[in-house]
Amino acid sequence: MNSLSTTEEKVLSITNLSKRYEEAGHKVHALKHTSLHLKQGEFLAIMGTSGSGKSTFLNLVGALDSPNEGTIALNGRVHPDMFKEPYATQYRSENIGFIFQSYNLLKDLSVEENIALPLILKNIPVKEMKARVAEMVGLVGLSDWRKHRPVQLSGGQQQRVAIARALITKPPIILADEPTGNLDFNTTTEVLRVLGQMKEQLGQSIILVTHDPYVATFADRVLFFHDGQIAAEYICRKDEQDMDRILSRFRAIMGRAQ
Ligand SMILES: Nc1ncnc2c1ncn2[C@@H]1O[C@H](COP(=O)(O)OP(=O)(O)OP(=O)(O)O)[C@@H](O)[C@H]1O
């Protein structure tokens, strides 16, 4: 493989990213000189102790917050205004799909209306919008539920709506913060399978923050954050031992935290 194709494969190149907060005179170095590459189609899970900087990292990658130092290159290019409005909003709308623990669906809209929302905001013509929503509703297995409102759905179904909404514009990167935090084991499995299938079909890269080592086994790679830094990495082998290995790495990090 030549160096050009290697560069092209990296959808995100994060270099030396740092974030410091100061509140009431108290300084917190939430993220310390963090660097990583995310490949096209890669599923990355982030685990770590509480307060280790996971959400801070996700917020910076999503340009919801700005760093004190460091750069994020998308497809090899650093945009000088990535963290400034109005470009930050454009960056998010073109490149990022967000999935949250609390689904964040609009309660008065139906399943298909919730999924259509990002397309409405982009002024996509109605005929194309209907076709794309119908395809997406089918991909997440909710065709029979498309006229229902969120309150009429189970937690897993609601999260599938949120996944479809995040993916409807086919953004290259999905950022998910504890997306299965409110779901039981079987529903977690179902939602992660849907996310994995969508990734295979649409080719997205995923960064998912989780406290659950079972959830992390669905990823290609797990990063363990500790004290604002990447403390360890685990490449998933996709076998039944993955969860034990992830847990033992995580416990080693927890040990360092005590
Ligand atoms: N807006 C903020 N203002 C001040 N401090 C903040 C802010 N956001 C995060 N922090 C601090 O930065 C550090 C990292 O927080 P962050 O939320 O990124 O951790 P986390 O790993 O996501 O934690 P958790 O697993 O508990 O959600 C913590 O010490 C936190 O208190």
Automatic annotation (TrEMBL):
InterPro entries: AAA+_ATPase, ABC_transporter-like_ATP-bd, ABC_transporter-like_CS, ABC_transpr_LolD-like, MacB-like_ATP-bd, P-loop_NTPase. It comes from the Bacteria. SUPFAM superfamilies: P-loop containing nucleoside triphosphate hydrolases. It comes from Paenibacillus sambharensis. This is ABC transporter ATP-binding protein. One of its GO terms (cellular component) is membrane protein complex. The lineage of its organism: Bacteria, Bacillati, Bacillota, Bacilli, Bacillales. Keywords: ATP-binding, Nucleotide-binding, Transport. GO terms for molecular function: ATP binding; ATP hydrolysis activity; transmembrane transporter activity. Residues 12-252 form the ABC transporter domain.
